[in-house]
Specification:
140 residues, alpha+beta, Aminopeptidase, seven-stranded mixed β-sheet, 4 helices, 30% strand
Length: 140
């Protein structure tokens, strides 16, 4: 089930984020992992959040602003089971999402978005925080 996220869900979102990132972002320096983890509640305030529940437990979530998907994370125990695809298709079909920024080094995510139909529009050498993680700007 896909539903809107409440502030009371934030601790669970952090756990989902941590599980996802630890298993997909092997390029991320430990100090940057800690930095981003601490910043997540701040990031949550700048996006509209939707989550995917299975048996009453949140297992994935996404955040978007206007037509931009800003984040999509699935707990590692649920990766490869269609959760991410259901979230992104919901965003495209119902929330007018047409763009996403992806860490270039996260090749699984780049392939996932290409498979959905996104293509690379542009590339930035640094991420939104000015850190040396190249970002691919993708669109439908």
């Amino acid at each position: 089930m896909i539903r809107k996220i409440k502030v009371t869900d934030y601790p669970r979102l952090i756990k989902i984020w941590e599980s996802s990132v630890l298993n997909t972002h092997d390029f991320l320096k430990e100090e940057d992992f800690t930095y981003y983890k601490e910043q997540m509640p701040v990031y949550f305030e700048h996006v509209t959040l939707w989550g995917f529940e299975e048996d009453g437990v949140l297992v994935g979530f996404m955040g978007f602003a206007e037509e931009n998907l800003e984040m999509l994370f699935v707990h590692n125990d649920f990766r490869g089971k269609g959760v991410g695809k259901k979230l992104i298709m919901y965003a495209i079909d119902n929330l007018k999402v047409t763009k996403v920024d992806v860490n270039e080094q996260n090749t699984q995510a780049v392939g996932f978005y290409k498979n959905i139909g996104f293509h690379i529009l542009n590339r930035s050498e640094l991420d939104g925080q000015g850190k040396e993680y190249p970002i691919l700007h993708m669109g439908l």
